[in-house]
Fold:
Amino acid sequence: MNALLRCAAVVLSASSLLASTAQAGGPVGGHYYLQGVTEVGSELRLRDDGRFEWFLAYGAMDQTARGRWSERDGRVVLTTERPAPDGDPFRLDAVFAWDAQTEERMRDMEAARAGDLAQERCPFLAVADGVSAPPMIGGPEPSPDALAQAARDSLPPVASARAVFEATAASALAARAYVVSVMGDEKLQRDADDAMRLAVAAMEAYRANLAQARDAHFAAGLDLPDLPEPRIPAECGMPVATDAQAVADAQPGRGLGVVIGDPAAGLRFSGIRVEFEFSDGHREARVTNRGGWALLRPRPGATLRRVSLRDAGDDDGVSAGRFAGTIEVDPAKGDVLAIAFDSARHSAPAFERMELRVDGDALIPTWPDGDERGRYVRE
Structure:
């Protein structure tokens, strides 16, 4: 599945996307809506000029297709048409100034990035809370005294697990720091990785014991006492401010950015690698988020000269770099570049060919896996 279409965020309604100026014609022509497929929204318009438009949304995945349709022997066949992917896939659509809304977006992205870096250094930060155990069914009902005792007995394991975590986390970070200091001896690296896995397991044990204590107190009708949280090593805190962040603090409300979308289709694109090149030769890369944004702070003493863009690749291993482009920048015109990407020309279509069986006033689609699921019902 193409990475761009899978991660694109729809910013135009499907009804606008499929708007038609022509009336449906023929026995099967018209505007159809998919029914009977859970959590999937899809529309199909068969135009009287022999062309079709198709849209599908499932979770974060959005797909479109356009082309020709024909009917024969009780089946409608959709054949996708795709323009040849010639020319630069990216073009500069507009340039605008950094504003308060973009600054707020930048701060949100900086906070998310800092959190990601902290979890990368200390993966035990990502351990979720323990899940409560399902209630027991059958058997004798415990007495109130027994429930109260179980609640009291649940507290020491929490304290013990907390202490174990604090010790293993400190050891894991010390081992990792030592590996860095000796330039990455392989055996020491394996030992450090094992130590970090122990720290993650210790946090999981703490969370599980805390959940059991919470359940025991709830069953006894008691409030869980205030328990100290595990001490998190200082190395797991938010990153120390970089030079660029220091400049942002001194000159708040400044930044550089790119937003990538397809105005014709009403889409924004994630997963595009944007490399910012500055006048002093420095290069810095970002990957666009789900809203199509890649933002960074200005570089002291340098101006932005150009941005290079390319596909960052699929999560399932599809190689990166299927399309690329470069945009020259005039710093005097603005700080944020709105770049258009022609998704219909440069992205793989959702399908090359699809058949739908005519069933009265409905169309039964055969999906790429060969199965019939759902039915398109005419509006």
